Amino acid sequence: MRRLTGLALRFLAAVLFLLLPAAARAADYAPWVVYYRGSEPARAFFDYRLAVFDADRHPPLAPLLDRDIWLLGYMSLGEMESWRPDFAAVKASGVLLDENPHWPGSYFVDIRNPAWQKRILDTLAPSVWTQGFHGFFLDTLDDPGHLERLDPVRYKGMTAAAAKLVHELRQRFPTAKIMLNRAFELHDAVATDIDFVLGESIRANWSADRNAYVLTPDADYRAYVAKLKAVQQRNPKLTVMTLDYWSPDDPAGIRKIYAAERTAGFLPYVATRALDRIIPEP
């Protein structure tokens, strides 16, 4: 019997995927990983089913493209980092706002500005797609809603513009896999435009004030779980992932986080805050 090509296998997998219940479909992406450096060789990811890489610095993609792994390229839609290659050009276009006080060197953007939307749709997303990524990881889309709450007059329409941008990205790339990080205010508007929703830091995170990894208060965690389940009800095809941060020197603590997220029905990964190393599940 002739072997199926990678494309044929993915088509068959997509058909079967639609026939499976949500829990079974989620298992198709386990284990998964987030890694934002380029020093690890491609073979380090051979046992993963989904990987999120930074689109500008990542391991070689070619050895992974024929394997059973989905590759998503990171895109920051609500902020712009000063180290990105086109930062100067973006700054000159007038779309940058204030620097994010929690992330020095990263600047909020006016997502309503046509110049920013054009960069995402006509330049950034195509550059990620043509590298061989199967889709996009959308980050920093909490920012538009945050800014609009801070100043409803100055930033009126930011949340709506963010939702519109996600919708237009889906229209431009109908076969792409799209993962949305948090951005709870957008869920009602974009639930059917995305394939994954990520709950980052919902169970554990790094506390700069305490200089330590800390667990999220139980009441806050239950609220996050409810929000993630709500968007999944709007789109039963969604897979809910979680990304929590914890010390790799505490495997017992990591195991507890994995157990909590799986009990909630989510697909977890636990890493260090820098996301610059692979942390296998203990």
Overview of this protein structure:
This is Endo alpha-1,4 polygalactosaminidase. The model is unreliable at 1-9 (pLDDT under 50). Helix 8 links the parallel strand 8 and strand 9. The strands form 3 sheets. The protein has an 8-stranded parallel β-sheet. Strands 4-6-5 form a 3-stranded antiparallel β-sheet. Strands 10-11 form a two-stranded antiparallel ribbon. The radius of gyration is 19 Å and the shape is globular. It has one domain (29-271): Aldolase class I (TIM Barrel, Alpha-Beta Barrel), CATH 3.20.20. The chain is an alpha/beta fold and 282 residues long. It has helices at residues 6-19, 22-27, 62-65, 87-92, 114-131, 143-150, 158-172, 187-190, 218-234, 251-263, and strands spanning 32-35, 50-54, 70-76, 79-81, 96-99, 106-109, 135-139, 177-181, 196-200, 204-207, 212-215, 239-245, 267-271. The protein contains 10 helices and 13 strands.
- The portion of residues assigned to helices is 25-40%
Low-confidence stretches: 1-9
How many structural domains are formed by the residues? 1
Structural class: alpha/beta
| Whole-angstrom Rg | 19 Å
Distance between the termini: 39 Å
The CATH topology is given as TIM Barrel
| Average pLDDT number | 92
Q: What is the subunit arrangement here?
A: single chain
Going by CATH, what is the homologous superfamily? Aldolase class I
| Strand line-up of the largest beta sheet | 1-2-3-7-8-9-12-13
Overall form: globular
Organism: Ferrovibrio xuzhouensis
Keywords: Signal
InterPro entries: Aldolase_TIM, GH, GH114_TIM-barrel
Protein name: Endo alpha-1,4 polygalactosaminidase
